[in-house]
Every structure is written in C-alpha cells, then in structure tokens.
Amino acid sequence: MQQLVILGATGSIGQSTLKVAAEHPERFAVLALTAHRSVNAMLQLCLRFQPRFAVMSDHTAALELQQRLQAVQSNTEVLAGEQALCDIAAHPDADMVMAAIVGAAGLLPTLAAVKAAKTVLLANKEALVMAGAFFMQQVRQSGARLLPIDSEHNAIFQCLPATLQQAVCKHQLHADSLQQQSISKIILTASGGPFLQKPLDEFAQITPAQAVAHPNWDMGQKISVDSATMMNKGLELIEAHWLFQCPVEQIEVVIHPQSVIHSMVQYQDGSVIAQLGQPDMCTPIAYAMAYPERVRTQVPPLDFSTLTALTFSKAEQARFPNLYLAIDACRYGQAATTALNAANEVAVAAFLAGRLRFDQIALVNADVLEQLATAQATELEAILALDQQARKATEQFIIRQLA
Questions:
Q1: Can you name the residues that pair with 56 across neighbouring β-strands?
Q2: pTM above 0.85, yes or no
Q3: Spatial distance between the Cα atoms of 121 and 284, rounded to a whole number of angstroms
Q4: What is the largest CA-CA distance in the chain?
Q5: DSSP 52
Q6: How far is Cα 335 from Cα 386, in angstroms, rounded to an integer?
Q7: Are 302 and 224 contacting, i.e. CB atoms less than 8 angstroms apart?
Q8: Which of 302, 301, 281 has its CA nearest to residue 18?
Q9: 217 pLDDT higher than 70
Q10: Spatial separation of the C-alpha atoms in residues 359 and 351, rounded to whole Å
C-alpha cells in the first residue's frame, strides 16, 4: 500500500490524482492533502478521503478548516504554512508525493520530497524551470525517484527504452545518453490554445474569460493563459531539457490542435515513436503512480474510426512570442529561465486582474528577460533571490510602462 501526499489537492491535477487513487484503494492510501486557501473544496476532500493530515498554506484558511472538521468530528489533523508543506512532503510515512502546486510556490515542498528520497510525481514544471540544475542534482544525490506527470513529458518517457526510463527516474542521464540510444530529437506537441486562428490584430481585445477557455484541456486559470500564449510549451521545453538531458536544439515544438498525440521521440533511423490517448490527465497520472506497471482508468480508449484528421504545423513567432522567449532563456541558462518564469507569473496575474492586455504579457516578459538573462544563480538561495528580483522588476515595468 503506497501512502500518498498530494501537494495541490484542490487543483485539476490533484483532483485527477484522487480519482486514480479512488479506483485503486488496494494500492493507494491518502496520507495528506494540501491546498492554499480553498477551504470548502478541502473540507469535502477530507471528508471523502479521510487523510491523516490536511495542510493549508494560508493560516486563516487552516484555522477555518480545522474548526469545520472538528464540528463533524473528523480525525484529520490540520497544519498551516509553507514549512508545514515541506514537512508533510518529507513525512517519514509518505511513499509517493504528487507535486502539483502551480508556480514558484511549489518549488520548496517539492525539493523537500526529493531530499527525503520520496517517489516524486512531478507536475510542477516550475521546479525545473526555476532550479533545473540544482533540482536534478538533488534527485541524484538523494536517490529520489522522479516521474514526469505533464502529458508531454510523460509521453516522451513512455516512448523511451526501458534503460533510459530508469536513468530518467534517478537522474543518471549524461550529455550523450540519448544519442547512445539512437535518439535524434524530442518532439513536443502543442494544441495551440484557443487563439490559433484568431487574427493577430485582435489580440489586444482578448479577455481573461476567453484566454482560460481551453479547447481540449480542463486546467486552472494560470496554466490556461500560459497555454494560450504558449509560454506553457516554452516552460515544458525547459523542463524537457533538464529531465532528458537534451540540448534545446534537439527539442522541437509542433502545433497539433487535436491533442491526440501527446509527444514523440524521433530515432536516428527515421522512426518516430508517439504516445496517443484522450486529452485526460488521469492517463499519465495513473501511468506514473503504478510505474512500471499499467493500471486501469476510466479514460475511454481512442476510437480511431472517429478521428477524421491529425494535423501539424509550425508555431509562428509572431503569434507565440512567449515560446521563443523561453527557447532563448533555455539557451542562456538557469538564471534566465528563473527570471522568465517569475516575470510570466506576475504578468499573467496582472492580465487576469485586468491590469494588462493579453498582447502585453510577452512585452513584459521580454523586458525582464533582457534585464536579468546574464545573472548568476546556481544555489537555492541565489535562485530564490533572483526570483524575487524578477518579480519586483516585472511589477515596476507594468506600473511604469503599461499601467
């Protein structure tokens, strides 16, 4: 029986993880659930799954949850704050940690799970975007087991030979590992989001409601906006660079609106191996939770007789400048990706709050990247300091130029 901790239990990844766990009660038990301040959602999850611990990063929310659980005589212990998130991720009884807190807030608890040598299911791509070299070094040193959850990286993982899969889990890849296995390229697919066909001269009028309405995936607001700008794909490219020790020049992004092929691996003989499936996160989550076995899910299999077309195209730089900013940042190095991630989080929040136009997100990100691309940040303290510096620079730019 695997004892499961879910960091970010009320989000879409957390919900899908609980769905898989509920399908396999003989395999998984819920040790702890965490959230930021979604008290109502957390209360319902606690009553259903009866975890030993519930952690709210917001102290006021934790107090309210504790009172409401006590009122129904629940035995779940409520903890509060960032340190509690880290402590529960490293809890001695935890076997498997789903790292699904969105954004930079997920870095420290995910690192805590890694340092405690847990099996870490990595859905928080910012852990690698912010601190890729440091993070993967910790995986290697601690002996943690790392499995990718993003549908694209999980697909790539599934398309690799078994020997490479094991090396990815323990970060035992080296610079020419892919080449030694005759792999020439990793291909990330992207839906293109809701504005793939929208005229560029209408981008200034895009509303937050339009941007979060993804045509294929049911995701949170921030990641949905990132999908619309394709920053999400840029962050995934950076993540793939670290996970698979793959040079950015050997990672290709292609638009695939149907979201049936989740990503591909191209081999030196010209063969391409792809992973296909419904656009449902339960599939990669179940694969990682049970790895190296496969377990059933409620996701229906593809019906190829109903697939009328699978189409592909290049991502235009004029339409998706954020993708190309991420590629540039990956070439610059760790500090650049840290700064770009921080800038984008602030810019997207400003857009969702109505302070910034959709087409201005990339302008903000480009300015901060230009300021901080050549900074140095290799240790955790320097990385966190640079993250804060980039956030302040972003907010100042928004106020100065775009308010």
A1: 35, 80
A2: yes
A3: 10
A4: 64
A5: S
A6: 7
A7: no
A8: 281
A9: no
A10: 10
